[in-house]
Amino acid sequence: MKQFQYSRPATQQAVIDAINKPGAKIIAGGTNLVDLMKRGVTAPDKLIDINHLPLKNIAPVKGGLHIGALALNSVVSENKLVVAQQPLLSMALKAGASPQLRNMATVGGNILQRTRCAYFYDTTMPCNKREPGSGCGAIGGYNRMHAIFGASDKCIAVHPSDMCVALVALDATVIVQSKKGTRRIPFADFHRLPGEHPDLDNNLAAGELILGVEIPDNNFAKNSYYLKIRDRQSYAFALVSVAASLELEGNTIKNARLAMGGVAHKPWRLVEAEKALIGKPVSAETFNIAAQIAIQGAKTYGGNDFKLKLAPATITEALKHASGLV
Amino acid sequence: MKSKNPPEEPAHENNFLESSRRDFLKHSGLLTAIALTPAPLVSAAQKGFDEKIADLYEKVPVSLEVNGVKHQLSIEPRVTLLDLLREQLELTGTKKGCDHGQCGACTVHVDGHRVNSCLTLGVLVSGKKITTIEGLAKGDQLHPMQEAFIKHDGFQCGYCTPGQIMSAVACIREGHANSEHEIREYMSGNICRCGAYPNIVNAIQEVKEGGQPV
């Protein structure tokens, strides 16, 4: 690992001053960053330790629930408020990584984690995300894990988070602070598609610090499910994952949220499929129709052709669980 | 906060060697840099920039408690907790498997919570209490989980075992050992390439059902 400077600025303001400088990177849990630094994928000149900042709180706010950027994934997943009010988030967090990693990883770090595309990690291979202009090894290469939505001819990597799939489904907001003040970014607009600049994962500006996320109150607690399909039962990244939340009135779907992981450069919200669910009866047929709508426009790359079948099947299954059909 | 651990003794020697090496690298690196650098920068370097470059990478003081023993250390920021334990404190029970957070062999407890020490920078655990596999037994009396692993043959080659045991203890303490399914899920961060999983599950179930404090 390349040498770097380490600093722990005393205050939030001092952190914001420090991260504004080129070559500086924030470290919180370090589960992704330290790995990337060991492999030489990233080599910051300076690490800014923010673990002491008071950003671990999980508390109700007007109209929702606030979760601090430094709250640990394990703590959030078992928090009573989260389990009671936002079980989808708890389920998604528990589906991610391992207990050890969840004890280290923070909410802010989870949002900012990089893709696990093997070509991004292997510094001897081309990767437009790691080294813009070098090409994409995954297109025409090993692309079993890769995107079926929103990819470009520069990059077909996927965002690896489970937590973010739940947060986009729940219409969360990311709160960030910079020298200019705070701003609120709707979760669906936080991450970006690769386009011409796959090196940019998200729309966080230079010098911005994530303070936390806010999840608006909802009526999904009773009928939510996170289903993650992977190559082994646990501790693996998603081939496809589905976050499904329903609000039922008798047997009728009053409101619905659907999002997928493992299929795009960002957590992938399925707005059209949601519309196809609302007002319909809870039934396998309703879910199948929504699942078919969800995969319209999908494009595969050889190794991931199977996702055309796996994705809708996973959506249907997740909806059956969420609605109580199974 | 002076260390009581035996490894403290040769620390002076290590520090001496370490600082000599660093001085050598600093000076030789500077000579190479000067040889390859345009004249204005060379003169800048001669005005003391080399000292600033050296300052950039100074070691960071870290104080931590490992298995009840307090240590005051000075480490490079890039040193992981795993390497700190194995290389500086000579606690080699904690194993380096993948070194990338994928196998769990390096699992230790930080303030009672299990973590992957290979992905934990030493500077991030300053002021914290670390427990490694060496800290579980009380003298010659093995920890119940160690006993159970032996009884149930919870290992073959034994390389993943320290991490498995640290994780298993945490699994029970967290309240995630209530069924075989739950144990398997909450032990999924520890890979055993010998495939001793059924016996590991049996060992954990026995300790859990035995009800003794872990």
In short:
The complex is a heterodimer of chains A (326) and B (214). Chain A is α+β, with helices and mostly antiparallel strands and 326 residues long.
CATH-wise, what's the superfamily of the largest domain in chain B?
Beta-grasp domain
- What is the count of helical runs of chain A? 13
- The CATH topology of the largest domain in chain B is Ubiquitin-like (UB roll)
Number of helical segments of chain B?
A: 7
Structure, explained:
The complex is a heterodimer of chains A (326) and B (214). Chain A has 326 residues and is of the alpha+beta class. Chain A contains 13 helices and 12 strands. The radius of gyration of chain A is 19 Å and the shape is globular. The mean pLDDT of chain A is 98. Chain B folds into 3 domains: 51 residues; 75 residues, Beta-grasp domain (Ubiquitin-like (UB roll)); 67 residues, Orthogonal Bundle (DNA polymerase, domain 1). The radius of gyration of chain B is 22 Å and the shape is globular. The interface between A and B is medium-sized, with 28 and 32 residues.
What's the topology here?
The complex is a heterodimer of chains A (326) and B (214).
Chain A: E1 5-7, H1 12-19, E2 24-27, H2 33-38, E3 46-49, E4 58-61, E5 64-68, H3 73-78, H4 80-85, H5 87-95, H6 99-102, H7 107-112, H8 118-121, H9 163-169, E6 173-178, E7 181-186, H10 187-190, E8 209-216, E9 224-229, E10 240-249, E11 252-261, E12 268-269, H11 271-277, H12 284-294, H13 307-323
Parallel strand pairs in A: 1-3, 2-3
Antiparallel strand pairs in A: 4-5, 5-8, 6-7, 6-8, 9-10, 10-11, 11-12
Helix pairs in contact in A: 5-9, 11-12, 12-13
Chain B: H1 11-35, H2 39-56, E1 60-66, E2 69-75, H3 81-88, E3 107-110, E4 113-116, E5 129-131, H4 144-151, H5 161-173, H6 180-186, H7 197-210
Parallel strand pairs in B: 1-5
Antiparallel strand pairs in B: 1-2, 3-4, 3-5
Helix pairs in contact in B: 1-2, 4-7, 5-7
